[in-house]
User: Fold SNARE-complex protein Syntaxin-18 N-terminal domain-containing protein from Jatropha curcas.
Amino acid sequence: MARVRDRTEDFKDAVRHTAVSSGYDESKLAAILASFIIHKPRQRLPFTKAALTTLESISTLEQFIIKHRKDYVDLHRTTEQERDSIEHEVMAFIKTCKEQIDVLKNSINNEEASAKGWLSIRGSSNTDTVAHKHGVVLILSEKLHSVSAQFDQLRAVRFQDAINKRMPRRKPNRVANPSSTDSSKMNNSEPREPDEIQTDPLRVQQQLLDDETRALQVELASLLDAAQQTETKMVEMSALNHLMSTHVLQQAQQIEHLYEQAVEATKNVELGNKELSQAIQRNSSSRTFLLLFLFVLTFSVLFLDWYS
Assistant:
């Protein structure tokens, strides 16, 4: 058996000699060889770039929420204005990410509409690409929803702390001291001197003023309790309103997805009806042609029989 010889180095020398004879210098030849070894990165599509930008925005939003979690939840670290500013920034982040996802959805819909032919039939490769892009948009939407759900939990903790802070505290019962009244009655029942008789109207007037003051205090305390209860209910209503708005947004997205599926199903049904009508027309035309052919054939046989 003949021995095998490695001719790789000879091939490289031949290629180098041919390149030098064709006018390539050493630096240009080295750049070409390096391009063969280290391939250039593929040019990314605009959709891929936009999707990666949206993913980076969502990741930045998640890092921002993790960084300011303690500042937003702990009441002793920041003030209400700072927590409101954090919430405003997070809402702006979420709105921007949602707008970017909507732009991606619109680009997919435009591409899907422009890729359809005159028979509204798409190729398999284009269908796979569109399905892949829909999957990318779905992943981005789920990622954004999970990050916003984390912040919703933080908002629920903040609302609960606000509710606990504004809960009305129990106040001691304001009951007049019966011993003082008994002592005042006993003092009134004791024999009084002429000086005490002169100051008796003043004491009666002072007693009336004290009674009115106590009545006003009780009324103000009841009004304060009612105001605190109203404030607590308003905070609870705001928290429930926020949770309801979140669920309504989720339902709106689901309804939009169902509407798109219904529109696609309607288009498919229309396409099927067109194909069925065309098949019926082809069947009727083939039947007519077959009848005509049989008639002509029968007439020809009769003619040939009569002629013979």
